[in-house]
Amino acid sequence: MSRQLTLSPAMLGVSAAVITLTAGAAGFGLAHLGKGPIATPAASNADRKVLYWYDPMVPAQHFDKPGKSPFMDMQLVPRYAGDTDPSQGGVRIDPARLQSLGMRLANVQRGDFAQDFTVAGQLDFNGRDVAIVQARANGFVQKVYARAPGDVVGAGAPIADILVPTWSAAQSEYLAVRRTGDASLEAAARQRLALLGMPQGLIDSVAKSGRVSNTITISTPVGGAIQTLDVRQGMTVNMGQTLAQVSGLSSVWLTAAVPETQAAHIKIGQPVTADLTAFPGEPVTGRVSAILPTAQADSRTLSVRVELPNSSGRLRPGMFATVHLNGESSSALFVPSEALIRTGKRTLVLLAGGKGGFTPVEVQAGRESDDRTEILAGLNEGDQIVASGQFLIDSEASLAGVNTRPLTAMSMPAPNSAAALYETRGLIEQLKGDSITLSHEPVPAIGWPAMTMTFRLKSANLARGMKTGDRVTFGFAQTADGPVIEKLQPMGGQ
Predict the structure, then answer these.
(1) Which of 237-246, 290-299, 476-485 has the highest mean pLDDT?
(2) Which is nearest to 231 in space by CA: 221, 245, 215?
(3) CATH number of this structure's domain 91-114+330-401
(4) Nearest 10 degrees: Cα torsion 164, 168, 170, 173
(5) Element (H, E) at 191
(6) Dihedral-angle region of residue 312 (phi above 0 means left; psi in -120 to 50 means alpha; beta otherwise)
(7) What is the mean pLDDT of the chain?
(8) Cβ neighbours of residue 426 closer than 8 Å, sequence gap 6 or more
(9) Mean pLDDT of the 379-408 span
(10) Where are the domains of the chain?
(11) Residue among 250, 221, 219 nearest 126 (CA)
């Protein structure tokens, strides 16, 4: 027998409240599953030691007691022992959890760094080793030898026999003059035969045999591959008509497609090693002989020409090759390439600060070689960075909300000052001695938004002749005592 339980409206309200609280607690617990013990900020900070107070907008300036910031209208924030240095930004992860993440650290090193990179290439005929076979006089094709485009022939290989009727009369006159025994007349007649296009070998044969020969065999002067063959038996040919084109194979050109971003690192005479899939384990070496003057618009690459010897004839035009261009070595800072985080707009690395602290640092990357990347700015030799496992840190604490140390004076000092000068524009709100209050525009280089704050003037003379309400351009440097204005100028058109 079942029982029916009846609840009053008051009891229903209490039950709903209990269910709501229980569900909220369960959801909060699931959201923090695996994140360690849960504590409220008051409970977690109650027993922690305060090291100092600071202004979040000027974290390098420390104060020994709480209060209002002297730089802007906001309260100072405490920094507790064990927290990441706010002036450096970054995140902190429990060292015990780091062991389970399996990250690998590496040091920024300095050493010999060669500009070696690999590109694709293709073999082609040597454009300088080309022979054009032409007809020397008007005539008729009597015989065509068994040749076809693509055939590989040796030097002196016959192409066709040409009958030249006009040579018969000239040769008969030459033989008649020769029989007179007058050497000067014979020399003049011989020169006339040469001017008619007869080769010296044919003239010598006529003089020796005493018989007219008006048929000449056209042959190729060099060995190689026949590219074109425009001669057929019985056809009429004219003086200067091209009968065949032969490309030599004693050497070939290797054309490498080099990205235009690497153009500055290519030089004439630079050594090159090429690996061909047809001959694995047998690299071919050569040197850059030419850098073509135009770039390929579709692929944004430069064509670099390398001449390779081909005495064996096994290098065939059309073959593809992997080309390794070996640059000069120079001393440089470098990190493992896998340590870089490329966001599209900038390149970051995670700088390890000890005790589980990590700071995203913006760097300027340079050349790449053998899984290493050159660092032009942003890091110092000996710095310890995360070489692998950066995505695990991002899963523990999203890097998207962490301030990044910018590429500023620490890594790229201004040429004429000890600290970088950050410039922007603003409106003078107050002038008092060597301090000035400005409502200024954003400063993207250090992540400052538009705001009103008080700066210290490097010299009170910087504001001479200026007054409240003036619009100015100014430049300030970040120092241990806060931002100091070193440059202050009125804007035109006020």
Answers:
(1) 237-246
(2) 245
(3) 2.40.420.20
(4) 170
(5) helix 183-195
(6) alpha
(7) 78
(8) 438, 439, 440, 441, 471, 472, 474
(9) 68
(10) 14-80, 91-114+330-401, 130-247, 422-490
(11) 250
Same fold, 91-114+330-401 and 130-247: no
Q: What is the pLDDT of residue 491?
A: 85
pLDDT tens across 340-357, in order?
A: 888 777 888 888 876 667
Q: Look at residues 456, 464, 462 and name the one whose alpha carbon lies nearest to residue 487.
A: 462
Burial status of residue 404 (CB atoms within 10 A of its CB: 0-12, 13-18, 19 or more): middle
The pLDDT of residue 98 is: 65
Dig out the tokens for 84 from the structure.
Answer: 């990441």
> In CATH terms, is domain 130-247 a member of 2.60.120.10?
no
pLDDT digits (tens, 9 = 90+) for 8-60: 444 334 333 333 333 333 333 333 333 333 333 434 556 678 878 877 666 66
* Cα distance between residue 318 and residue 386, in whole Å: 44
**Are 233 and 161 within 8 A, CB to CB?**
no
Q: How far apart are CA 270 and CA 73, in angstroms?
A: 62
CB count, 10 Å around CB of 258?
22
Strands 271-276 and 284-296 turn out to be antiparallel
Q: Which residue has the tokens 């290989």?
A: 157
Query: How far is 435 from 222, CA to CA, in rounded Å?
Result: 86
Q: Which two tokens stand for residue 326?
A: 């070996």
- For the record, the structure tokens of 230 come out as 């425009």
Classify 422-490 by CATH class. mainly beta
